[in-house]
């Protein structure tokens, strides 16, 4: 969801936006992650559900292998509360990374920081009132000091030397894509390059911050011969965690996208169809999910699926935006096609329960190096596409702030910066908010 084309062209947009899209859930247990037997703990599934929790390979850190729209006052994932008042923007020219910081309102602004990031490929995430910076090339997570942003308070390396995925310290051998805080001492990290999630303690520094892992291989399709399931996004709805899986081989989807469902209390995998053989994830209609958010109420999960992403014209517009019911774990209602949207899908935001905006990208005919990027309105209640909000040469991401305004990251050479719009499409910024010498890459809304 993107960043240096580790997944696919359509993934370039999806996770450069880093605030969690979850409604405020109940606090999860802070106990160490454990394993339980199937059938003895069925009550840990959502009330009334027939889903079966499945014991996972969740291991102690000593043997472990090693990624919102929020109200202004947020009861966070970890049970804390904080006032989200600022935007933290990460910038990069793919040689050096930097930051910008400023108030989200009443007049949005950005002040460029002189601090340099330790990784040029870096994306901010706010979750549970904790501010993270995902250092993708370094395979690490920086926990930032909210009282002195963007200063790093703690750094947790995810590439564990001596573990199965270590070997030579190659960049992107873990590739953290997203993170979800469950408590002040436990968070789940989406690891794009590995077939498992990381479990960390954000209150610890160094290797001690890695406390376990969650094996996703039971969800791998028989057609997927790659080492990773390409986990890309994570959201929480109530007691359930949902992780989008792109299921790619050499950047090409081998089967439809899926959503892993995980019990938030003990990080056990949930089998959404016990009648079928094996552990079953949520089955999406389309392929290659590149962006996943919840609606403002948390009643629905909305997924953008880019399908097969062409590297040169003509493009195949086979993706769609669709809604998943987090209670039934089934796709519901109408979808909006890439054909109607007019390009390959990237990041999305939901403005209400049905209406949202999507970044779409279309390669210019005859020139694979030139792209037409747009923010387009869509409506899942009617399955229709509305007006185009903005057109640019290169858009890196989109996010809705706690007041409902939408921030668009524009990387177009000569006019790069951040644009802010009201939900009705009216521009709040008459020109892009400058991010200095480096264009914007990610944004999170922070205390």
Model description:
The chain is mainly β. The chain has a single domain (9-446), classed as YVTN repeat-like/Quinoprotein amine dehydrogenase (Methylamine Dehydrogenase, Chain H), CATH 2.130.10. It is 1% helix and 42% strand. It contains 1 helix and 33 strands. The protein has a 4-stranded antiparallel β-sheet, with no helix packed on it. The chain has a 4-stranded antiparallel β-sheet with strand order 7-8-9-10, with no helix packed on it. A 4-stranded antiparallel β-sheet has the order 11-12-13-14, with no helix packed on it. β24 and β25 (330-337) form a beta hairpin. It is globular, with a radius of gyration of 20 Å. The chain starts with 51 loop residues before the first strand and ends with a strand. 56% of the residues are buried.
Brief overview:
With 447 residues, this protein is mainly beta.
């Amino acid at each position: 969801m993107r960043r240096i084309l580790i997944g696919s062209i359509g993934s370039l947009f999806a996770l450069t936006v880093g605030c969690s899209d979850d409604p405020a859930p109940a606090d999860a247990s802070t106990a160490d992650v454990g394993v339980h037997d199937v059938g003895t703990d069925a009550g840990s599934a959502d009330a009334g559900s027939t889903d079966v929790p499945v014991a996972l390979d969740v291991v102690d850190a000593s043997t472990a292998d090693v990624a919102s729209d929020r109200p202004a006052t947020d009861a966070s994932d970890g049970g804390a509360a904080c006032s989200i008042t600022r935007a933290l923007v990460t910038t990069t020219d793919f040689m050096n990374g930097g930051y910008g910081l400023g108030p989200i309102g009443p007049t949005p602004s950005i002040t460029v920081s002189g601090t340099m990031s330790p990784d040029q490929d870096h994306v901010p995430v706010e979750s549970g009132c904790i501010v993270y910076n995902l250092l993708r090339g370094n395979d690490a997570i920086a926990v930032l000091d909210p009282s002195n942003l963007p200063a790093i308070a703690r750094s947790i390396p995810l590439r564990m030397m001596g573990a199965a995925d270590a070997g030579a310290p190659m960049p992107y051998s873990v590739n953290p894509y997203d993170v979800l805080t469950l408590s002040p001492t436990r968070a789940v990290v989406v690891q794009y390059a590995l077939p498992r999630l990381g479990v960390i303690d954000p209150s610890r520094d160094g290797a001690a911050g890695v406390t376990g892992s969650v094996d996703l291989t039971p969800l791998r399709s028989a057609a997927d011969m790659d080492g990773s399931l390409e986990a890309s996004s994570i959201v929480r709805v109530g007691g359930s965690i949902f992780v989008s899986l792109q299921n790619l081989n050499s950047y090409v989807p081998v089967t439809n996208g899926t959503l892993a469902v995980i019990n938030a209390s003990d990080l056990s995998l949930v089998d959404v169809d016990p009648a079928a053989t094996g552990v079953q994830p949520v089955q999406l209609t389309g392929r290659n999910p590149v962006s996943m958010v919840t609606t403002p109420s948390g009643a629905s999960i909305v997924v953008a699926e880019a399908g097969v992403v062409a590297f040169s014209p003509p493009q195949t517009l086979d993706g769609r935006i669709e809604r998943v019911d987090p209670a039934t774990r089934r796709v519901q209602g109408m979808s909006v096609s890439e054909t109607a949207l007019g390009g390959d899908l990237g990041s999305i935001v939901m403005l209400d329960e049905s209406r949202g905006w999507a970044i779409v990208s279309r390669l210019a005919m005859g020139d694979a190096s030139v792209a037409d990027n747009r923010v387009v309105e869509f409506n899942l209640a009617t399955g229709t596409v509305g007006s185009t909000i903005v057109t640019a040469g290169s858009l890196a991401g989109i996010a809705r702030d706690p007041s409902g305004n939408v921030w668009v990251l524009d990387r177009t050479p000569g006019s790069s910066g951040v644009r802010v719009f009201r939900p009705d499409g009216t521009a709040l910024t008459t020109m892009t908010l400058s991010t200095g010498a480096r264009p914007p890459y990610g944004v999170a809304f922070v205390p």
